[in-house]
Amino acid sequence: MILLGSTGSIGVNTLAIAERFGLHVEVLGAGRNIELLNRQIKRFNPSIVVIQEARDRPIVDHPRVLIGQEGIMEAIREAKSDLVINAIVGFAGLRATLEALTCKKRVALANKESLVVAGAFLDSSDIIPIDSEHFGLWYLHDITRPIERMLITASGGAFRDWPLERLQHATLADALRHPNWSMGRKITIDSATMTNKLFELLEARWLFGEGNFDAIIETRSLIHALIDYRDGSTTAHFARADMQLPIAFALLGSVQERIVDRVDLLECGGLEFRAIDPERYPIWSIKEDLLRRPKRGVIVNAANEAAIERFIADEIGFMQIARLTLDAYAHFDVEASEVDALFALDEEVRRWVKER
Predict the structure, then answer these.
(1) Would you say 59 and 32 are in contact if contact means Cβ atoms under 8 Å apart?
(2) Shortest CA distance to 278 belongs to which of 205, 195, 353?
(3) Spatial separation of the C-alpha atoms in residues 346 and 92, rounded to whole Å
(4) What is the pTM of this model?
(5) Which end of the chain has the lower number of beta carbons within 10 A, N or C?
């Protein structure tokens, strides 16, 4: 396999599955955590290594090191592996997805921005989502029964229990205190604003086609997806929040042994479900419009990434992340007609948000 983002949470879990099932790792791609990358190189002996910054080249323990975005493209083209695990964070992962599909490789996709931004231009038949929610939908999906609605769940993020009046004063440290688990900085902030769940609905739209998609809060994060069938019945996918389960299916195709411990319903006791309130999560107000016009995902993604950068730099408050994103969504009432236009629109939206 070609593993991009090897030192992040998805990458580390992917390597755990690779080691357990004896899978060969041909390419390791990482950012700035060279200490962990060197340990991975020693253990998995890849043919090619890709790093983010040229200045880190002297401290990488490998003879074949490529650099940056161009290095990723070269590694994808050169490698014999036909599976690319794309766990790069943010819009930066899109070019890797495009290149992998152009090279007729399958993509196990943890980079949700690829589908959010460019779903209209990607062949989803060659994409395997590495995501608890989409894995849950796939696991439950039964085309022999008419489906009425596909639901995914949200944790509610760091501020699900905060009084609304306190949200204006939320800090970066507050936003990073996820109630259920530890994740990377950007996705934790996206969880707090509910942008992450909005993106996952858009992903589901591109993966499963047109339909009725929605989300609810399930505070324990034990149910990841539900499907309502036309006959009035509903099925739910219970599993522990462990990414090794969807990763194992993405890498192996089918799994015949236990990957995670089973959910003990007696141990967990009760479950709590809540609606996603647009007053607490303002980004939710564009959900229906975005699902009707999914090509506009590039606007939401670019505005959100630019706004998060400003929040981290302490230039804006937490609630302004969603406000700037919504303003950009209203201002840029356009859809890109081809891939190059996506990149141009992305740059234009980022500039606009940084100047507000």
Answers:
(1) no
(2) 195
(3) 11
(4) 0.92
(5) C
**Class of residue 267 by CB neighbours under 10 A (exposed 0-12, middle 13-18, buried 19+):** exposed
Residues with Cβ within 8 Å of 190's Cβ and at least 6 positions away in sequence, in order, are: 196, 199, 304, 308
What is the rounded CA–CA span in Å between residue 83 and residue 234?
A: 34
Domains of the chain (ranges, CATH numbers): 2-129 (3.40.50.720), 133-292 (no CATH)
To which H or E segment does residue 200 belong? helix 195-208
- The string of pLDDT tens digits covering residues 134-182 is 999 999 987 788 999 999 999 999 999 999 999 999 999 999 998 877 7
pLDDT tens, residue by residue, 267-283: 888 899 999 999 999 99
CB neighbour class for 241 (10 Å; exposed up to 12, middle 13-18, buried from 19): middle
The number of C-alpha atoms within 13 Å of 18 and in the hemisphere containing its C-beta is: 23
Query: Residue 51: what residue type?
Result: I
Distance CA 60, CA 312 (A): 29
Q: What is the mean pLDDT of residues 90-112?
A: 95
